[in-house]
């Protein structure tokens, strides 16, 4: 993991409700969920992009020039994106974990760091850098390949995305505390 330091924001800071977006690549692809795997698929009328729930983190970064800290979830806010090493792998990989976005945001920094991304504007596009590792979310030029991570911007992988606002998407609001 990197030496990025994430410091808690002031006690009065509360995250707003998640915003809902579809994520589009510059190569006419969208990110879509396929059996709990994120894939870059052609942006066609018969292929619907996944709705991403984007929540500003209650933590703030010591490296604010990297972008704003966000949490990302799909599947009505029930599957959160994270990056971690899997068993037998030497490099971190992009993963979906069964965690509720609203519960994840309430956690403290050490448990939260693998789920935090820097969203940085680069022209009219955005990059998504992992807070825990010096890697960026990327897609391949090939259709229907799994989204992943890379350590090099804009080389053989696509690392710039557009966030298009989704008008209607619901987040699972089941309250387990009752």
List the helices and strands and how they pair.
Blueprint (H helix, E strand, L loop, with lengths): L5 E3 L10 E7 L3 E5 L4 E5 L9 E5 L2 E3 L6 E7 L4 E7 L6 E7 L2 H4 L4 H4 L3 E7 L2 E6 L5 E3 L6 E2 L1 E3 L10 E5 L13
Antiparallel strand pairs: 1-6, 2-5, 2-15, 3-4, 4-13, 5-7, 7-8, 7-10, 8-9, 10-11, 12-14
What's this model, at a glance?
This protein is mainly β and 178 residues long. 4% of the residues lie in helices and 42% in strands. It has 2 helices and 15 strands.
Main structural class: mainly beta
Apparent shape:
globular
How much of the sequence lies in strands comes to: 35-45%
Order of helices and strands: EEEEEEEEEHHEEEEEE
Kindly report how far apart the N and C termini lie: 38 Å
Determine the fraction of residues in helical runs and give it as a percent range. under 10%
User: Could you report the average pLDDT, rounded to the nearest whole number?
Assistant: 83
**What gyration radius follows from the Cα positions, in whole Å?**
16 Å
* Low-confidence segments: 1-14
Strands, total number = 15
Please describe the biggest sheet, giving its number of strands, its sense, and whether it closes into a barrel: 8 strands, antiparallel
What is the helix tally? 2
């Amino acid at each position: 993991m990197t030496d990025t330091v994430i410091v808690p924001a002031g006690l009065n800071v509360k995250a707003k409700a998640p915003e809902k977006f579809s994520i589009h690549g510059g190569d006419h692809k969208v990110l879509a969920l396929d059996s709990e795997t994120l894939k870059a698929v052609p942006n066609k009328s018969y292929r619907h992009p996944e709705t991403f729930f984007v929540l500003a983190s209650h933590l703030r970064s010591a490296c604010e020039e990297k972008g704003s800290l966000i949490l990302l979830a799909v599947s009505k806010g029930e599957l959160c994106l994270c990056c971690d090493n899997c068993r037998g792998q030497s490099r971190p990989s992009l993963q979906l974990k069964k965690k509720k976005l609203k519960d994840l945001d309430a956690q403290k920094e050490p448990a939260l760091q693998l789920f935090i991304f820097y969203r940085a504007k680069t022209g009219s596009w955005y990059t998504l850098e992992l807070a825990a590792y010096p890697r960026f979310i990327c897609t391949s030029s090939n259709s229907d390949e799994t989204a992943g991570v890379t350590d090099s911007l804009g080389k053989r992988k696509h690392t710039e995305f557009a966030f298009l606002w989704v008008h209607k998407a619901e987040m699972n609001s089941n309250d387990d505390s009752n």
